[in-house]
Amino acid sequence: MANKHQGSCLCGRVKYELSGDFQSFFLCHCIRCQKDTGSAHAANLFSKASTLTWLKGESDVKTYQHPNSMHAKSFCQICGSALPTIAESINSAVVPAGSLDSIISIEPTAKIFVGSSANWSRNLDNVPSYEELPGQVKN
């Protein structure tokens, strides 16, 4: 029996379940993923031959397909959270890792398109880490 994974958007209007196993988990540094996440990379899991079921809020899900490319992004039209997309060209569900409420049992497979990495994201080993927002920026 296939694994079941649950996920949702930030505002909670959309909930989904994916039945299937993840074969790969890519951290994509391409320019398109930087633009659509507003961050250094996208973190997407790929599942072939899986079933995506919208449990709640399917009418709030919108999909943007970038012209002349395989790049697509589904999102909640209320809060903007990234949500799974069915990529028919590769017969896979593409699931943003951050949208999952279930524990992910697969480690990232690879960083891809690293030649396009944002210059500010390349040497982060010496950047301080905090459990929460640091005091100097709190109001």
Automatic annotation (TrEMBL):
PROSITE patterns: CENP_V_GFA
Domain CENP-V/GFA: 5-121
Xref: InterPro entries: CENP-V/GFA, Mss4-like_sf
Key word Lyase present: yes
GO molecular function, one term: carbon-sulfur lyase activity
Residue ranges of the TM segments: none
Signal peptide: none
Superkingdom of this protein's organism: Bacteria
Keyword list, A-Z: Lyase, Metal-binding, Zinc
Family membership noted in the UniProt record: Belongs to the Gfa family.
Name of protein: Glutathione-dependent formaldehyde-activating enzyme
Organism: Vibrio quintilis
